Amino acid sequence: MDGGGEIEGGGDKNEFPSAVRGRKYSPVVAHDNDRAVLEMSSIDPRSSSDPKKAKVNLQPDVASECSMPNHSVNGPQRESKLELFGFDSLVNILGLKSMTGDQIQAPPSPRDGGDVSITLERPRPIAVKSGTLMGVFVPCLQNIMGIIYYIRFSWIVGMAGIGESLLLVAFCGSCTFLTTISLSAIATNGAMKGGGPYYLIGRALGPEVGVSIGLCFFLGNAVAGAMYVLGAVETFLDAVPAAGILRETVTRVNGTDIAEPITRPSLHDLQIYGIVVTILLCFIVFGGVKMINRVAPAFLVPVVFSLVFIFSGILLARHDRPAVGITGMSSESFKENWGPAYQRTSNAGIPDPNGKIYWSFNALVGLFFPAVTGIMAGSNRSASLKDTQRSIPIGTLAATLTTSGLYLVSVLFFGSVATRDKLLTDRLLTASIAWPFPAIVYVGIILSTLGAALQSLTGAPRLLAAIANDDILPVLNYFKVVEGNEPHVATFFTAFICIGCVVIGNLDLISPTITMFYLLCYAGVNLSCFLLDLLDAPSWRPRWKLHHWSLSLVGALLCIVIMFLISWAFTVVSLALASLIYYYVSIKGKAGDWGDGFKSAYFQLALRSLRSLGASQVHPKNWYPIPLIFCRPWGKLPENVPCHPKLADFANCMKKKGRGMSIFISIIDGDYHERAEDAKAACKQLSTYIDYKQCEGVAEIVVAPNMSEGFRGIVQTMGLGNLKPNIIVMRYPEIWRRENLTEIPATFVGIINDCIVANKAVVIVKGLDEWPNEYQRQYGTIDLYWIVRDGGLMLLLSQLLLTKDSFEGCKIQVFCIAEEDSDAEGLKADVKKFLYDLRMQAEVIVISMKSWEGQGEQQESIEAFSAAQGRIATYLGEMKERAERDKTPLMADGKPVVVNEQQVEKFLYTTLKLNSTILKHSRMAAVVFVSLPPPPANHPAFFYMEYMDLLVENVPRLLIVRGYRRDVVTLFT
Predict the structure, then answer these.
(1) Hey, what's the torsion of the CAs at 507, 358, 420, 353, to 10 degrees?
(2) What 3-state DSSP class applies to 462?
(3) Contact, 425 vs 451, CB < 8 A?
(4) Comparing 52-66, 578-592, 760-774, which segment has the lowest mean pLDDT?
(5) Beta bridge partners of 662
(6) What is the pLDDT of residues 903-948, one digit of tens each?
(7) Could you give the CA distance from residue 267 to residue 314 in angstroms, rounded to a whole number?
(8) What is the pLDDT of residues 758-783, one digit of tens each?
(9) How far apart are CA 472 and CA 474, in angstroms?
(10) DSSP assigned state of 130
(11) What is the pLDDT of the chain when averaged over all its residues?
(12) 663: buried, middle or exposed (CB in 10 Å: 19+, 13-18, 0-12)?
């Protein structure tokens, strides 16, 4: 392309979409014989002869655009409707990459005159990915099928009977089945990265919940690996006693009619063999997914053969066999074993009237439930799967249904093939009845447990690496891993935990907690699906349709019930550990916004609350101040300080115990299309500053031609329903005369008039620079000059000040300015009674107009009064001269005004008297409140600023308050 593909215009370096604005694009030529033309149409072949590196020339070629409007070098161009939308393939690529979560650096700005290089490098080798069978089904099957089936399941049938054993399998299997349904729904709701259940729970319930449950699940997998290793080693030493190195056995005799010795291998043999086996398994794990997939069938095939031999032996067992207690498939045995036979046993499970353990259905739930865990083995390896949305649901559900069906059939077969005594005394009944090679059962037990250990040692490091990669906890940064690489450091750490537990040798105290961690994870998955399905956000579109929020809720409740059935003590321990991790993450962890379900829940709750508030006025008992903080100062602030520091401190003073919301608003002058990006950056900066000042609030930036128009739009539209701001807070423009800012009076008066029309309360802070922070204690009084009825706003604000640490040592004084000849004592009594009914403690002082006029004015007030008179006279004279010269009525602020000089003098005299009164009674007050006089109609804004300046003269810290047409306090309970 000679210029037809060049892009004219420029953009921002950091945000690519902004670069699109203002560009012109030439149509892209679509050639039938060359597919690469459309994809690489922006590459200039003249820029480089090296096919591996080409440059996109982003400089405009005006000549080519003008000379060839309809033709390019390669021929006539086809009409492209996409040009209307500023079509650019780079924009599409960036958009698609950002949607999948990949971070793509935006191309440099052509505004800088540089070329954009596109390097066509050799693609990186793609890591080996697993399918449904080897990636999910086999790992889940290996984790679920464990030692409990071989050495404990027939015993469970003998203890609980066939009927309650079926109920037990159905009860525990329902929990995992419902969890699988929830897991399938969440896993098919979008692309899934590494971390399995942690990724799902964290993205649904937030980073704190995800990390706390994820770390507990990691510990459960790591310790479970040690438990599986010990089970395999113990079975091996039982089958081959001669393999014992130390050959120390503990021999006991069971308490049944047929006394048989029970031997157990030495603890040191368990430790030595356990460490060696763990190290060998870790070498396999270090080989990566490819090595694991090669080894996994070697562990699984003997297990399958052992199951075939077990069922063959059951079906071929006959009554004439010499084995004691083996009846073959017998209806009499079925009837005899139907009911339960709960009793006391020794620690080895042998019936003993004096045994320490009494078995019940609840106890059997705790014993059997680990036999159905392991459904997360496939999702733990989600980063190694080709298609998580297909493999996880199909593979996990297939493994769950296969094992559950196997357990149900085994209950019927075991209950029919042997007597109850045989079921309760023969720990290896599966080996006793296996045909034709009973020894294969020992091999099946060993390899099934080793396979489960392998899957635990495979999933746990990947889970820890996924948590570390999310960068929530800095302490886990050592376990980070580049995508596609093996988590070697996490594997070392997992192996260290596993070997430590193997050295302990006895996991009876730890194994129940492992089950709790599994159940905690399952409950988290169910709650995640329940929340997402119940809220039904637009982004919730799982491919797996066989789910419902009620099923997820039942699954979560089942998990919690099973936890307490197994052991309430271990349940409390596991929940306490998860809570401690949650607390640690919330304090030390970095914020991660993953669009979790709680955010959606907050949104739904906010909408419901907003609708329930309605559009009617809120009752005074439920009234909260919602201040709109006008951040734009009358003057300039230091660079990178978007708001006056003391405004945030003052906003906090308007809340009781931090409850309430503030809206920080700032206005940027200019055109919205030109300054939209500036507004976004300013809003982000202001939000950061609000968080830094620990002020509950939100930031908003508005672009407007000027401050007056911007504020007028804000006061009309800001907020929703009854959550609109009800108090406008701003700084008093003390600098307007010192800086000779002649535009301030009109803007200031316009803002006050807009608030009056919009029925907003106003609080103007004078002396903001001296406003105390939370550590500066104030003493003295808070003086209120309650001149006009304001709905109790001034009283309420003074009470809110007292709740702050900086003002808690102050006392309130209420000054009531009464009219002449009024009953001052009666007014004082009424105000006291009113304050008493409002539960407010304050001293009441009544100042009547007569005594007001009789007192001597303060010298400072008289000087300010004279200066104001002179300035007003000068300004009035200039107005009259201009009107006579232009032969127009008196004009000020762009509109005609009517000046009554006697009324002006009256206003000046009133503010003089009020200022003198404040200086006389409240010179040492911590804060002074005074009612805000409304701007007089048809008076110039300059005059009103003179009135206000005279009112606030020499008062160091003053709050000027105007209420609105409603009460904010009430006498009634």
Answers:
(1) 110
(2) helix
(3) no
(4) 52-66
(5) 697
(6) 888 888 888 888 888 888 888 888 999 988 888 887 888 888 888 8
(7) 34
(8) 888 899 998 888 888 777 888 888 99
(9) 6
(10) B
(11) 78
(12) buried
Q: Supply the pLDDT for residue 409.
A: 95
Q: CB–CB of 958/952 below 8 Å?
A: yes
CA–CA separation, 867 and 817 (whole Å) = 26
Q: Is the dihedral of CA 99, 104, 109, 110 positive or negative?
A: negative
Amino acid at 937: A
Residue with token string 């008493």: 836
Triad 628, 634, 637: Cα angle to 5° = 90
Write the DSSP symbol of residue 743. Answer: T
State both tokens at 297.
């069938």
Count Cβ atoms below 10 Å from residue 57 Cβ, excluding itself: 20
SS3 29: coil
Query: Of residues 46 and 451, which shows the higher confidence score?
Result: 451
Residue appearing with tokens 């300010």: 864
Given a cut of 90, whether residue 103 has pLDDT beyond it is no
Q: Which two tokens stand for residue 969?
A: 């306090």
Torsion of CA 491, 496, 501, 503, to 10 degrees: 140
Tokens at 280, concatenated: 């060998």
The per-residue b/e assignment along 474-496, b for 16 or more CB within 10 angstroms, e otherwise, is: eebeebbbeeeebbebbbebbbe
Of 681, 705, 689, the residue nearest 629 (C-alpha)? 689
Structure tokens at 70: 């309809």
User: Is cis: bond before 935, omega within 30 of 0?
Assistant: no
- E strand or H helix at 284, and its extent? helix 267-286
Place of tokens 């009837």: 335
Spatial contact of 144 and 169, defined as CB atoms under 8 Å apart: no
pLDDT band at 874 (very low <50, low <70, confident <90, very high): confident
678, amino acid identity? D
pLDDT of residue 852: 58
Q: Indicate the SS3 state at residue 703.
A: strand
Distance CA 756, CA 753 (A): 5
Tokens at 130, concatenated = 């697993």
CB 187 within 8 Å of CB 394: no
Start-to-end C-alpha separation, the chain: 80
By C-alpha distance, which of 418, 421, 434, 430 is closest to 259? Answer: 421
Residue 453's SS3 state is helix
